[in-house]
Design goal:
381 residues; mainly alpha; Methane Monooxygenase Hydroxylase, Chain G, domain 1; 2 domains
Length: 381
Amino acid sequence: MQRTLNKSFFWEKKLFVQRSQDLAIADLDPLNMDEFFKLLPEYNQQGDVDKLVSGLYKYIPYPDKLAKFSYEESIAAMRDIGILLGSIKKHGLEPVEQVPELDYILDVLSEKTDLPPRDTLLHYSVWNPAGDRMRTYTHYTDERGLIDSVKMSMEPVVKGIHYLIELHHTDIDSKEFALICHMADACFKKMVEAIVHARRNVDTTVFSKVLRFYYDPIQLYGRDYLGPGAVEMPVFIYDHLLWGSDCGDEEYDIFQNTYLPYILPQLRDVYYNYKGQESLASKVMSKLISKEVSVNVKESAEALRNMFMTLSSFRMPHKHMAEEAYQKQDDRSTGSGGYSTGILGAIIQLMSRKRQELEATMRLSGFLNNKNSAKRKMTGS
């Protein structure tokens, strides 16, 4: 049944609950480590691994306390242990080899939260306290700028994803479709703002020479678990709904499945629910080649096309920033999420191909002239 805009989207209440829960998690200090984290940047600067390991032994919970942790406490505990995991690994050691008890603790926290047995981008950003309580590896203000850029964009991206889900259940030949496109697009523009914020506040030299090494994978159960990285943003779920669910590219599928465990379980469900189904772009193209194309369909197609343009205005600067950072490293070819920056170019190519298919279909339907298309190409979209 078609939804109308005078009805509240049911998921908005869920997002409000999620926001409240996120703030509650950030307020928690279940391991009583607030004071320790004021000293951690100094320990890291000095390379004092003994202080890091002794800190873990001092603060990790005993099994009886661990068993009583709530969902929120479990996430906050994983957040705080995770900062020490990254710190120890940065100094060339495997955390679980230094503190074998972590094996059991990380496994329990993973089971309680339905997230990997280590910290993720969510722990490092959304669930990280603000102000003086913020957990950081270093004294660099660039690190705070990096964390804040994720904090400011995570919720809008998730909200945009839910708007795209609504679009999958909205008649393309309706006024509502274009309106919901505009709302989703407005949400995603916060990602563009976040890139601008990171560009202004995070020196790529500081990132590549200092911060990057705190996000390396750790070894656990004989496999690697990736550290926090921007690639764990659920932008790939937004892509999935807009143009990627019927993409069929093997490398892209592997990329998505690598990062699915690192996002919220409900967003994983979105991926699986729409995998192999027609993307929004494909649905609109199918509508454009039908016998009768209304003004509403034209407006729906143009609104969807604008979403591609906004997506490009995020992906291109992100790619340039990542490449700039990793050009400054002689011994690293992969990004903070474990992939080479080349994957960003591959995703842009796939996205652009789908956008070009949409534009070609719009031209055939008489809704897009070559002049407008050429203008888009000149802007690098």
